Amino acid sequence: MLTLTLLVLAIAGLLIVMRREAGALPALAVTAGLGLVGLVAGASILGVLLMIAAAAITVCGLPALRTRWLTPRLFALFKKVAPKVSDTERTALEAGSVAWDGELFTGRPDWKKLLDYRDEGLSDEERAFLDHQCSVAAGMCNAWEIARERADLPQELWDYLKQEGFFGMIIPKAYGGLGFSAKAQSLVLQKLSVSETLMVTVGVPNSLGPGELLLKYGTEQQKDHYLPRLADGREIPCFGLTGPRAGSDATALPDTGVVCKQMVDGEEVLGLRLNFEKRWITLAPIASVVGLAFRLFDPDQLLGEEEDRGITLALIPRDTDGMEIGRRHHPIGSPFLNGPIKGHDVFVPLSTIIGGPEMIGQGWRMLVECLSIGRCITLPSGATGTARYALGWSGGFARIRRQFNVPVAEMEGIQEPLARMAALAYVSRAAVYQTANTIDHGEKPAVPSAILKSQLTEFQRVILGDAMDIHGGKAVTLGPRNYLGIGYSANPVAITVEGANIMTRNLMIFGQGAIRCHPYVLEELAAKDADDAAAFDRSFFGHAGLIFGNAARALTQGLGLGQPSVPFDEIAAPYARDIARLSAGFGLCADAAMASLGSQLKQREMLSARLGDVLSNLYLASMTLKQWHEGHKVEGEAALLHYGCRFLLGRAEQALDELFDNLPSRALGRTLRVIVMPTGRRWKRPEDTLTREIAQNVSRDTPLRRHLLDATWQENDGSRDNPLARYNALLASQERAEALYRRVNKAYAKGQLPAEALHPEARVEAALAAGLIGEEDATFMQEREAAVLELLTVDDFAYDAFVTDKTKVLRHQPA
Q1: pLDDT tens sequence across 193-246
Q2: Residue among 498, 637, 653, 693 flagged as catalytic
Q3: Under a CB-based contact definition with an 8 Å cutoff, are residues 428 and 462 in contact?
Q4: Is 145 designated active site?
Q5: How much is the pTM?
Q6: In the beta sheet, which residues pair with residue 346?
Q7: Got the DSSP string for 536-605?
């Protein structure tokens, strides 16, 4: 009995020490103290084992001893097996900043640090712009007209965007821009995503474009000249990075610049001779100024002894001799302006280099740092806005579309995708808004930008697929009335650009995060590069303490012991505690994968992707909890929080489960499963009761629906047809209509109305004639049915309307 008691005390004491990462001395006190008790009290075998453990802790854990014999050996081994970090990778790792993503790597996330990023909301100016200018711009769009009739935005919309400063949201007011916060930019793009072409047209100049690069790195002369002209639309920018052979591997640029001298207007000028071929460049066909990335060489050593000067960025006017620009690509599903740029022996002076000659060779760092912010906002905001519009349209359609004498919104087959759409839209909105809020607090979120870009555009793909399924024939028939089909077909663009989702998920999220966000790995690599044994000792044994700590936290919390304190209400707290549990498990698994696979982990992309999935889902769930904590909650919102968090945490557990099954070391996989999930998986798919509740709420005029559609284009001002406004109007009178539907259909079923009254309009007329409803109700229903029929109607065209070459039309039947 004594032996069992001492064993339990030893395990409990060591788990407490490990959970707190208290270090070697407390662990030594536990093992030596209990070992001494065992020897004295007669539990000699356990006492000896504990004293041996105490001796091992002494020689391995106390710095004064281990630095003499253990650290040098470990350091030598580490230098042999540590992955080599290239200059390109190091630049990416050092770009941006680490915030909540780093907390999730620790296994003990401090929620106070997340909540310290307080949301101050929008300024009055930003809110007014969102309410007015964005509504006016959205009201000038029709997807069919833009995609099929113009292949461009209307001229009056271009003029309005320039007039109101849409292209200068990120440019400070001192240069004539709007100087908006990141949150305001995100909400503007969400509202404009009623048209993907409009969103892209506004988003790109405010993201990875010359404007942001000039702001951060431009010379004062460059800023003074270009920023006011970019802000008011006198200059339309584009940025040429990708090309036929440089896509995901953007550092493999084959485009070159050579330092040379050339006579210009009778004067010898020192400059660059550029040769390049770029593709997929948004706004290139109409751009007046081109940002260009290229590899710079100085073979004649005109700038110094170094010949290969590295990736460099320049800003080149459209009319520069030798540049070919103006042709268009045809992006799938959307006519946003995108095209190739070529240049042969294009000469430009050194003054065109962004930031001047001092920034030669700094192009990759400049691009990565700008991407860490721009990629957090543009595409994630577009995906979120698209999700919310698709939800609004689908909820409205499902309520007014009747089959079997009931709205299809009452059918569980429709309720399931409708609830999923609502939950993913809710999570997306929280994640992009709260991440933008951290940007407004000075963060440059590199890893979260990869998470948001890949995850939210994948959510968009799911949501649009669900919306198409709900709409059926309404959405698969293109024409001016189809508000969904063109956006659905354009979705692959968002999946592919700014870092294709396959690459981002498999290589970037964990591949970058494992080093950038980990509390110790970057320090260990820096110690290796500096050959600093003392720094290595501190970071390596701190890392070891973290591993033991995460193992203890994952195991005890998995068993329901020692749950962390979290600053949330009773609805959100269980999810926050489980995020902490899975964070500990994730940290342990990340270290186990890196230790067991070493540099091979780079090639084991499926394992890396699963670890990235865990991090992504924990990050999205954290942002959702913060939004809940700070937001103005509405009736029915708790169901969305439950659905969203259970969905995300279930996906995180699924990724861990698959990781355990696929680690090369089966023993390691089984051990990790026991530690991280000692009682198995906790989270399953959300219950049907949640699904039904959410679907009912988003397909009716409810506070939850209005909350989810806040800051979307819902005005019905007559400038363009707004289906969302029409659905909202019909839902506002839905209760009255449903009562009349029931009365009229019941009368028809009883034979009180003529059998030939098959259409709703005929039944209403017959019910009026039979005295079952009054004149006012009949008029209401007739007007309503006309509005419903218009929303259900699809377009048709002349037989040869889609044939571009009329001579090739086949006339199968006589005219």
Answers
A1: 999 999 999 999 998 778 889 999 999 999 999 999 999 999 999 999 888 887
A2: 498
A3: no
A4: no
A5: 0.95
A6: 274
A7: HHHHHHHHHHHHHHHHHHHHHHHTT-SPPP-SS-TTTHHHHHHHHHHHHHHHHHHHHHHHHHGGGGGT-H
